[in-house]
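Milestone M4 deliverable, item 7.
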Amino acid sequence: MHMNLGIEERHGISFPCLFVFFIIVMLVVTPLSADAQGLQGAQREESGQNMRVVPDSAAQVQLSFAPVVAQVVPSVVNVYARRIVQRRRGLFDDPFFQQFFGDNFVAPRQRTQQSLGSGVIVDSDGLIVTNHHVIDGAQELTVVLADRREFKANLVLDDARTDLAVLKLQNPPDALPALELRDSDDIRVGDLVLAVGNPFGVGQTVTNGIVSALARSQIGVSDYQSFIQTDAAINPGNSGGALVTLDGRLLGVNTAIFSKSGGSVGIGFAIPANMVGRVIRAAKTDSEVKRPWLGAQFQDVGSDIAEAFGLGRAGGAVIVDLHEVSPLRQAGFKNGDVIQKVNGRDVFSPADVRFRIGTLEIGGQVELGAYRDTAEIIVGVALVAAPEVPSRNIQRIGGDSHFAGLQVANINPALSEERGLGPTKKGVIVLDVAVGSQARRAGFRIGDIVLAVNGEEVQRVQDLQRLARANSAKLALEIERGNRRLRVTLRR
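Output delivered:
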């Protein structure tokens, strides 16, 4: 008789047999699983950056820039620049009417113009760095702190060549929160950054992004161009504001954007902190930025030049002209040498070379790495100021001639450096053209270089003064204006 004990049989295998089989399998597999888990754990330790884990606390879930922002924001200010501008009325501003009736025929109207930018406190005594273009031409400067306190400010240093300016608060409060500068040579593409400023006047705003590129030139904002590019949103009003790293230090001063609409498209530029620091140090000493002078004219090294010179890579600056007293010439450099390193750091363009040298102090030496006939050379070059030889001899030309009203000077290396002229440029340059003067009506412009008059070369200011006294009825002029040479005939 078959007794049903309630145990179901399937395919000829009883439940007790299955249970025994399961126990045996577990005894065998469990040690193997433990070993596998240990192996996987070791692999995760070896490649920790690839490990994905579930957050085990609220702190791990709530990642935030807030601690950095709280540290940085009190050091970023708003800068209000008040200007009085002159405006003429429509038709009477036309050069035709000015020629016949003079510049004072109709009195210009005065209009107050106020612009807004940002700034960064860089010294607890009330020293603030901003952009030159924010305060350019301002008669009155007002700084508003993050806590809305307002202070009048004085202009300590204005350096148009770097688009930087340094202000000092009048009667500053004690212990202002100042940002520490970071070594901008220590940054890499991809590093996270925050931009702080007052875009469009809406109020202090923080945006985040990354460093998109380094050593950007050809931006056209200043003479010394090696900008940090970022995709952190920068808009009008952010100029002069802070670009900071996540350790709360100042990486750069926001200065420009690339935009066809006027708003941010994710291409912004900041002046690196190493150049900012150079300007701040000058503001604390003699309120003038005195930069080392190389006395050389360079050309970009493209792939064609690199191949012709047998170089391993394109980039750098090939020397095409040297002043007779250039420190490069005195150190043994000559035309055709290709500079590719400054103090051990790669440079990729003449702008890079100028920027690197511009961050250094006068005195001591800089090491330049260059190639000459495919051989690498490293040469120490003295860091010296541009010489004031010949003297500028600034003069205003009077009398009754087409030159009357010109203020002119002899071109020397120091003046060339200030005005961004070629290092070997010579002659007489126009510094100013008096309103309503014969020179203004003749068409002279600031920056014109007078090369020759009636076939006679003009080398010094006294040459032009002598030719002006001759009062010739006809003047055949040769003038350099920008990159053009003009030949003009003037008659009385």
